[in-house]
Amino acid sequence: MGSVDGKIAIVSGVGSGMGTAHVRALVAQGARVVGFDVKVGDGATLAEELADDRFILLEGDVRSAADWKRIVEVCETRFGAPSVLVNNAGILGLNRVETVTETDYRTVIDVNQIGTFLGMRAVAGPMRRQGGGSIINICSTSGLVAFENNFSYVASKWAVRGMTKAAALELARDGIRVNAVCPGETDTPLIRADPTVSPPTGLPFGRWARAEEIASAVVFLASDESSYMTGSDVVVDGAYTAR
Questions:
Q1: pLDDT at res. 27
Q2: Alpha-helix residue ranges (DSSP H) falling in 50-150
Q3: Which of 29, 79, 136, 203 is most buried, taking the most CB atoms under 10 A from its CB?
Q4: At 133, which CATH number?
Q5: pLDDT, tens digit, for every residue of 179-191?
């Protein structure tokens, strides 16, 4: 038996990187998953790999409340009410406070912060009606410490941590747990596109995290093994922030 047998999950940002890893790990442990992205990318390959009674791939934009409503409705129709949400979609913002444009700042905030808020809001009602659930917001070590040249990204990820804790307090009596996973530098297309990231040899483990290692934390928080965890930051950074 898998650790999330019987769970029904929605995962955003499944077009590449950690999103695909989260889907694979959840399905392998017994969950059924609805995944979506604004550009499905590698999600199409994932859909070919997995049985259609375990994984549904949709197009959708986390910035759109209408898209969130549609995705939750598809989930309820095909699989049932979601018991797990993984707010994974995110984009990077390489900029500084004095030079970032308002447009560029809002672009990062709209995806990373507003998208996370809309996802939590969309699933809260269905989760409450079925007696509870687990919301997992993918944050970052950029939500724990600051980095230069990533002003809007750092701002968005600190906001995700704050929203996680506020939602955890508000939804606890409904049996809905809300936690944040804070990955360190992880080997994904997102980090490889960031010219400000140092070579992994400078990290305590001497390498970047693998997406599958972050997905293991997601599966744990989705499972009943973490039943008394809410409002927590689960840091998976190979001791980067311990220094």
A1: 98
A2: 65-78, 102-109, 115-129
A3: 136
A4: 3.40.50.720
A5: 999 999 898 876 7
- Structural domain count of the chain: 1
Token pair in block for residue 140 = 């970052």
Closest CA to 140 of 204, 224, 235: 235
The SS3 of residue 1 is: coil
Q: 123 near 177, Cβ under 8 Å?
A: no
Q: Which of 105, 153, 228, 240 is catalytic?
A: 153
Q: Do residues 150 and 109 touch, judged by C-beta distance below 8 A? A: no
Residues in the chain, total:
243
Whether 228 sits among the annotated catalytic residues: the reply is no
Q: Is residue 37 within 8 Å of residue 13, measured between CB atoms?
A: yes
82 within some domain:
yes
Structure tokens at 93: 């913002």
Nearest Cα neighbor of 123 from 179, 168, 176, 159 is 176
Q: Looking at 130-233, list the stretches that DSSP marks H as alpha helix, in order from N- to C-terminal side.
A: 151-171, 189-192, 211-222
Which of 204-232 are b and which e, b meaning 16 or more Cβ less than 10 Å from the residue's Cβ? eeeebbebebbbebbbbbbbeebeeebbb
Range of the domain at 213: 8-242
Residue whose C-alpha is closest to residue 19's, from 115, 94, 117: 115
**Distance of alpha carbon 73 from its chain centroid, rounded?**
20
In a domain, 76, yes or no: yes
Q: Phi-psi category of 155—alpha, beta or left, where left has phi over 0 and alpha has psi -120 to 50?
A: alpha
8 A C-beta contact, residue 126 and residue 81: yes
Structure tokens at 147: 């980095």
Q: How many helical (H) and strand (E) elements, i.e. helices and strands, does the chain have? A: 8, 7
